[in-house]
Here is the input.
Amino acid sequence: MPEPDLSVDRITRSRRNVFASVRLDRLAEYRDDEAWVASALNADSARFVPLWRNRSLLANTEQGQVAVYLSTGELEQLDAIAPPTLLGTDGKRYFFAVSINDSQQEDVCSRHPEAQFIDLRLASVNMDTKHAGVLAYAKAMHYWQYRHAFCGICGNLNRLESAGHKLICSNKECGRQSFPRIDPAIIVLVTQGDACLLGHNANWPPRRFSTLAGFVEPGESLEDTVIREVYEEARVRLKGIRYVSSQPWPFPASAMCGFFAEAQNRECGPSDEMEEVRWFTATEMAEAVGRDEIRLPPPVSIAFQLVAEWYQQQDGGDLAGLVKRSGSWLSRKGIK
Here is the structure.
Protein backbone atom coordinates (compact mmCIF):
# COMPACT_ATOMS: atom_id res chain seq x y z
CA MET A 1 0.00 0.00 0.00
CA PRO A 2 1.19 3.57 -0.63
CA GLU A 3 2.70 5.20 2.44
CA PRO A 4 0.54 8.01 3.86
CA ASP A 5 1.70 11.61 3.77
CA LEU A 6 1.87 12.25 7.51
CA SER A 7 1.91 16.03 6.95
CA VAL A 8 -1.67 15.88 5.62
CA ASP A 9 -4.52 15.09 8.01
CA ARG A 10 -7.62 13.11 6.99
CA ILE A 11 -9.87 16.17 6.77
CA THR A 12 -7.48 17.92 4.40
CA ARG A 13 -7.16 14.79 2.29
CA SER A 14 -10.93 14.53 1.90
CA ARG A 15 -11.22 18.20 0.99
CA ARG A 16 -8.98 17.57 -2.00
CA ASN A 17 -11.76 15.46 -3.50
CA VAL A 18 -14.22 17.22 -5.81
CA PHE A 19 -17.60 17.96 -4.14
CA ALA A 20 -15.94 17.83 -0.70
CA SER A 21 -14.05 21.13 -0.85
CA VAL A 22 -17.02 23.47 -0.34
CA ARG A 23 -16.77 25.22 3.01
CA LEU A 24 -20.36 26.21 3.74
CA ASP A 25 -21.68 26.89 7.21
CA ARG A 26 -24.87 24.83 6.92
CA LEU A 27 -26.68 26.96 9.50
CA ALA A 28 -28.50 23.94 10.95
CA GLU A 29 -29.46 25.91 14.05
CA TYR A 30 -31.61 28.27 11.93
CA ARG A 31 -33.52 25.72 9.85
CA ASP A 32 -36.57 25.73 12.15
CA ASP A 33 -36.55 29.51 12.64
CA GLU A 34 -39.18 30.50 10.07
CA ALA A 35 -38.62 34.24 10.54
CA TRP A 36 -34.87 33.92 10.05
CA VAL A 37 -35.28 31.70 6.97
CA ALA A 38 -37.77 34.15 5.46
CA SER A 39 -35.33 37.02 6.03
CA ALA A 40 -32.49 35.06 4.41
CA LEU A 41 -34.69 34.18 1.44
CA ASN A 42 -35.38 37.86 0.79
CA ALA A 43 -31.83 39.07 1.36
CA ASP A 44 -29.94 40.65 -1.55
CA SER A 45 -27.18 38.15 -0.88
CA ALA A 46 -29.47 35.13 -1.38
CA ARG A 47 -28.56 32.87 -4.31
CA PHE A 48 -30.67 29.99 -5.57
CA VAL A 49 -29.49 26.78 -7.22
CA PRO A 50 -32.19 25.79 -9.76
CA LEU A 51 -32.66 22.06 -10.31
CA TRP A 52 -34.67 20.67 -13.20
CA ARG A 53 -35.04 16.94 -13.75
CA ASN A 54 -32.06 16.42 -11.48
CA ARG A 55 -29.87 18.66 -13.65
CA SER A 56 -27.95 21.81 -12.74
CA LEU A 57 -27.84 25.17 -14.54
CA LEU A 58 -24.38 25.83 -15.97
CA ALA A 59 -22.79 28.24 -18.42
CA ASN A 60 -19.88 27.26 -20.63
CA THR A 61 -17.00 29.77 -20.48
CA GLU A 62 -13.32 29.83 -21.42
CA GLN A 63 -12.54 28.92 -17.80
CA GLY A 64 -14.84 25.89 -17.95
CA GLN A 65 -18.34 25.24 -16.67
CA VAL A 66 -19.67 27.95 -14.34
CA ALA A 67 -22.60 27.60 -11.95
CA VAL A 68 -25.52 29.93 -12.65
CA TYR A 69 -27.46 31.07 -9.60
CA LEU A 70 -30.81 32.84 -9.53
CA SER A 71 -31.45 36.02 -7.56
CA THR A 72 -34.32 36.66 -5.14
CA GLY A 73 -36.14 38.68 -7.80
CA GLU A 74 -35.90 35.86 -10.34
CA LEU A 75 -37.16 33.35 -7.78
CA GLU A 76 -40.21 35.49 -7.00
CA GLN A 77 -41.11 35.58 -10.69
CA LEU A 78 -40.87 31.81 -10.94
CA ASP A 79 -43.40 31.04 -8.19
CA ALA A 80 -41.41 28.01 -7.00
CA ILE A 81 -43.23 24.68 -6.88
CA ALA A 82 -41.76 23.87 -3.44
CA PRO A 83 -40.17 25.89 -0.63
CA PRO A 84 -36.45 26.50 -1.29
CA THR A 85 -34.02 24.36 0.68
CA LEU A 86 -31.44 26.16 2.82
CA LEU A 87 -27.92 24.97 1.99
CA GLY A 88 -25.86 27.44 4.05
CA THR A 89 -23.58 30.43 3.74
CA ASP A 90 -20.01 31.05 2.62
CA GLY A 91 -19.91 34.22 4.72
CA LYS A 92 -20.98 36.40 1.81
CA ARG A 93 -24.09 34.78 0.37
CA TYR A 94 -26.92 32.54 1.47
CA PHE A 95 -27.34 29.53 -0.80
CA PHE A 96 -30.65 27.77 -1.37
CA ALA A 97 -31.73 24.94 -3.68
CA VAL A 98 -35.00 25.21 -5.59
CA SER A 99 -36.77 22.65 -7.80
CA ILE A 100 -38.45 23.89 -10.97
CA ASN A 101 -40.86 22.33 -13.47
CA ASP A 102 -40.73 22.21 -17.27
CA SER A 103 -42.36 25.59 -17.91
CA GLN A 104 -40.18 27.25 -15.29
CA GLN A 105 -37.14 25.67 -16.89
CA GLU A 106 -38.03 27.34 -20.20
CA ASP A 107 -38.40 30.68 -18.42
CA VAL A 108 -35.03 30.33 -16.68
CA CYS A 109 -33.25 29.39 -19.90
CA SER A 110 -34.78 32.35 -21.72
CA ARG A 111 -33.42 34.65 -19.02
CA HIS A 112 -30.00 32.95 -19.16
CA PRO A 113 -29.41 32.11 -22.84
CA GLU A 114 -25.75 31.43 -22.14
CA ALA A 115 -26.64 28.55 -19.83
CA GLN A 116 -28.32 25.17 -19.96
CA PHE A 117 -29.33 22.42 -17.57
CA ILE A 118 -26.61 19.74 -17.59
CA ASP A 119 -25.82 16.52 -15.75
CA LEU A 120 -23.50 17.68 -12.96
CA ARG A 121 -21.42 14.50 -13.11
CA LEU A 122 -20.40 15.31 -16.67
CA ALA A 123 -19.91 19.04 -16.18
CA SER A 124 -18.02 18.98 -12.88
CA VAL A 125 -14.82 17.84 -14.60
CA ASN A 126 -14.26 21.45 -15.66
CA MET A 127 -15.85 23.28 -12.71
CA ASP A 128 -14.54 25.34 -9.83
CA THR A 129 -14.48 22.91 -6.91
CA LYS A 130 -16.32 25.21 -4.49
CA HIS A 131 -19.30 25.67 -6.76
CA ALA A 132 -19.23 22.02 -7.79
CA GLY A 133 -19.65 21.24 -4.08
CA VAL A 134 -22.58 23.65 -3.69
CA LEU A 135 -24.34 22.14 -6.70
CA ALA A 136 -23.66 18.60 -5.52
CA TYR A 137 -25.16 19.41 -2.12
CA ALA A 138 -28.24 20.90 -3.82
CA LYS A 139 -28.57 17.91 -6.12
CA ALA A 140 -28.41 15.46 -3.23
CA MET A 141 -31.17 17.29 -1.35
CA HIS A 142 -33.30 17.55 -4.49
CA TYR A 143 -32.98 13.79 -5.12
CA TRP A 144 -33.89 12.88 -1.55
CA GLN A 145 -36.96 15.14 -1.59
CA TYR A 146 -38.10 13.77 -4.95
CA ARG A 147 -37.68 10.12 -3.94
CA HIS A 148 -39.52 10.63 -0.67
CA ALA A 149 -42.45 12.77 -1.81
CA PHE A 150 -44.84 10.25 -0.25
CA CYS A 151 -44.84 8.66 3.19
CA GLY A 152 -43.31 5.19 3.24
CA ILE A 153 -45.75 4.09 5.97
CA CYS A 154 -49.20 5.25 4.87
CA GLY A 155 -48.60 6.59 1.36
CA ASN A 156 -49.84 10.12 2.00
CA LEU A 157 -48.04 13.17 0.68
CA ASN A 158 -45.06 14.42 2.68
CA ARG A 159 -44.54 18.13 3.33
CA LEU A 160 -41.18 19.88 3.59
CA GLU A 161 -40.16 21.33 6.93
CA SER A 162 -36.97 22.56 8.60
CA ALA A 163 -35.96 24.61 5.54
CA GLY A 164 -36.07 21.51 3.34
CA HIS A 165 -34.17 19.15 5.66
CA LYS A 166 -37.13 17.25 7.07
CA LEU A 167 -40.22 15.61 5.56
CA ILE A 168 -43.36 15.09 7.63
CA CYS A 169 -46.31 12.97 6.57
CA SER A 170 -49.38 15.13 5.93
CA ASN A 171 -51.58 12.47 7.54
CA LYS A 172 -51.87 13.66 11.13
CA GLU A 173 -52.62 10.14 12.35
CA CYS A 174 -49.27 9.05 10.93
CA GLY A 175 -47.01 12.10 11.18
CA ARG A 176 -43.90 10.10 10.23
CA GLN A 177 -40.74 12.21 10.00
CA SER A 178 -38.06 11.52 7.39
CA PHE A 179 -34.56 12.95 7.15
CA PRO A 180 -32.00 13.01 4.30
CA ARG A 181 -30.48 9.62 3.55
CA ILE A 182 -27.41 8.54 1.65
CA ASP A 183 -26.02 5.16 0.62
CA PRO A 184 -22.53 4.53 2.04
CA ALA A 185 -20.13 2.86 -0.37
CA ILE A 186 -16.47 1.91 -0.41
CA ILE A 187 -14.00 2.46 -3.22
CA VAL A 188 -10.62 0.79 -3.01
CA LEU A 189 -7.31 0.63 -4.86
CA VAL A 190 -5.77 -2.80 -4.30
CA THR A 191 -1.97 -3.00 -4.54
CA GLN A 192 0.58 -5.78 -4.34
CA GLY A 193 4.26 -4.95 -4.50
CA ASP A 194 4.81 -2.46 -7.32
CA ALA A 195 1.46 -3.04 -9.03
CA CYS A 196 -2.16 -1.98 -8.59
CA LEU A 197 -5.33 -3.79 -9.61
CA LEU A 198 -7.94 -2.25 -11.91
CA GLY A 199 -11.07 -3.78 -13.35
CA HIS A 200 -13.37 -3.41 -16.35
CA ASN A 201 -17.12 -3.86 -15.96
CA ALA A 202 -19.00 -5.10 -19.03
CA ASN A 203 -21.53 -2.28 -18.58
CA TRP A 204 -18.85 0.40 -18.86
CA PRO A 205 -17.60 2.00 -22.08
CA PRO A 206 -14.86 0.04 -23.90
CA ARG A 207 -11.35 0.27 -22.41
CA ARG A 208 -12.56 1.82 -19.18
CA PHE A 209 -10.67 0.55 -16.13
CA SER A 210 -11.22 1.73 -12.59
CA THR A 211 -10.81 0.83 -8.94
CA LEU A 212 -13.11 -1.64 -7.22
CA ALA A 213 -16.17 -0.38 -5.38
CA GLY A 214 -19.43 -1.46 -3.79
CA PHE A 215 -22.18 -0.56 -1.37
CA VAL A 216 -22.07 -1.26 2.35
CA GLU A 217 -24.55 -3.95 3.36
CA PRO A 218 -26.54 -4.00 6.62
CA GLY A 219 -24.47 -5.25 9.53
CA GLU A 220 -21.14 -4.58 7.80
CA SER A 221 -18.28 -2.35 8.81
CA LEU A 222 -16.56 -0.39 6.06
CA GLU A 223 -13.54 -2.69 6.32
CA ASP A 224 -15.70 -5.80 5.99
CA THR A 225 -17.26 -4.29 2.88
CA VAL A 226 -13.80 -3.75 1.36
CA ILE A 227 -12.87 -7.39 1.99
CA ARG A 228 -16.15 -8.73 0.58
CA GLU A 229 -16.33 -6.49 -2.49
CA VAL A 230 -12.70 -7.09 -3.52
CA TYR A 231 -13.21 -10.83 -3.37
CA GLU A 232 -16.60 -10.70 -5.13
CA GLU A 233 -15.30 -8.53 -7.96
CA ALA A 234 -11.75 -9.83 -8.44
CA ARG A 235 -11.33 -13.01 -6.35
CA VAL A 236 -8.51 -11.34 -4.43
CA ARG A 237 -7.75 -11.94 -0.76
CA LEU A 238 -6.43 -9.01 1.29
CA LYS A 239 -3.91 -8.78 4.10
CA GLY A 240 -4.11 -5.07 4.90
CA ILE A 241 -6.58 -2.17 4.59
CA ARG A 242 -6.12 1.54 5.22
CA TYR A 243 -8.71 4.34 5.04
CA VAL A 244 -7.63 7.29 2.87
CA SER A 245 -10.39 9.89 2.42
CA SER A 246 -14.06 10.35 1.55
CA GLN A 247 -16.16 12.09 -1.08
CA PRO A 248 -19.84 13.05 -1.41
CA TRP A 249 -21.12 11.37 -4.55
CA PRO A 250 -24.69 12.48 -5.38
CA PHE A 251 -25.07 10.16 -8.39
CA PRO A 252 -27.62 9.55 -7.19
CA ALA A 253 -27.08 9.53 -3.40
CA SER A 254 -23.85 8.05 -2.09
CA ALA A 255 -20.94 8.83 0.18
CA MET A 256 -17.74 7.23 -1.10
CA CYS A 257 -15.21 6.06 1.49
CA GLY A 258 -11.81 5.58 -0.15
CA PHE A 259 -9.30 2.91 0.88
CA PHE A 260 -5.96 1.44 -0.07
CA ALA A 261 -5.71 -2.33 0.38
CA GLU A 262 -2.84 -4.78 0.03
CA ALA A 263 -3.42 -8.15 -1.62
CA GLN A 264 -1.92 -11.38 -0.32
CA ASN A 265 -0.73 -12.20 -3.84
CA ARG A 266 -1.57 -11.41 -7.47
CA GLU A 267 -3.97 -14.25 -8.00
CA CYS A 268 -7.15 -12.76 -9.43
CA GLY A 269 -9.92 -13.49 -11.89
CA PRO A 270 -13.02 -12.03 -13.54
CA SER A 271 -16.38 -12.35 -11.84
CA ASP A 272 -20.06 -11.70 -12.45
CA GLU A 273 -19.36 -8.03 -11.75
CA MET A 274 -16.00 -7.53 -13.49
CA GLU A 275 -15.43 -8.72 -17.05
CA GLU A 276 -11.66 -8.22 -16.75
CA VAL A 277 -9.20 -7.45 -13.94
CA ARG A 278 -5.54 -6.59 -14.53
CA TRP A 279 -2.46 -5.73 -12.51
CA PHE A 280 -0.52 -2.67 -13.68
CA THR A 281 2.88 -1.39 -12.64
CA ALA A 282 3.33 2.37 -13.00
CA THR A 283 5.30 1.84 -16.22
CA GLU A 284 2.66 -0.51 -17.63
CA MET A 285 -0.09 1.92 -16.75
CA ALA A 286 1.70 4.84 -18.43
CA GLU A 287 2.22 2.76 -21.57
CA ALA A 288 -1.39 1.53 -21.63
CA VAL A 289 -2.76 5.05 -21.16
CA GLY A 290 -0.39 6.42 -23.80
CA ARG A 291 -1.57 3.81 -26.33
CA ASP A 292 -5.22 4.52 -25.40
CA GLU A 293 -5.43 0.86 -24.42
CA ILE A 294 -7.13 1.77 -21.16
CA ARG A 295 -9.08 4.82 -20.04
CA LEU A 296 -9.11 5.96 -16.44
CA PRO A 297 -11.84 7.86 -14.63
CA PRO A 298 -11.40 11.67 -14.66
CA PRO A 299 -10.09 13.64 -11.65
CA VAL A 300 -13.63 14.43 -10.48
CA SER A 301 -13.76 10.88 -9.09
CA ILE A 302 -12.09 9.69 -5.91
CA ALA A 303 -11.19 6.60 -7.96
CA PHE A 304 -8.78 8.69 -10.01
CA GLN A 305 -7.36 10.37 -6.91
CA LEU A 306 -6.53 6.99 -5.38
CA VAL A 307 -4.80 5.81 -8.55
CA ALA A 308 -3.00 9.15 -8.98
CA GLU A 309 -1.60 9.06 -5.44
CA TRP A 310 -0.32 5.51 -5.93
CA TYR A 311 1.16 6.44 -9.32
CA GLN A 312 2.94 9.49 -7.92
CA GLN A 313 4.54 7.42 -5.17
CA GLN A 314 5.58 4.69 -7.62
CA ASP A 315 6.76 6.84 -10.51
CA GLY A 316 6.97 10.38 -9.16
CA GLY A 317 4.87 11.54 -12.08
CA ASP A 318 1.64 13.43 -12.59
CA LEU A 319 -1.03 10.98 -13.75
CA ALA A 320 -3.53 13.74 -14.61
CA GLY A 321 -0.97 15.37 -16.89
CA LEU A 322 -0.18 12.04 -18.52
CA VAL A 323 -3.84 11.34 -19.24
CA LYS A 324 -4.45 14.82 -20.62
CA ARG A 325 -1.42 14.61 -22.89
CA SER A 326 -2.52 11.24 -24.22
CA GLY A 327 -5.97 12.57 -25.05
CA SER A 328 -7.45 9.39 -23.57
CA TRP A 329 -9.91 10.91 -21.15
CA LEU A 330 -12.62 8.47 -20.28
CA SER A 331 -15.81 8.77 -22.27
CA ARG A 332 -18.05 10.79 -20.00
CA LYS A 333 -20.82 8.25 -20.22
CA GLY A 334 -21.22 6.46 -16.93
CA ILE A 335 -18.38 8.02 -14.92
CA LYS A 336 -17.91 6.14 -11.66
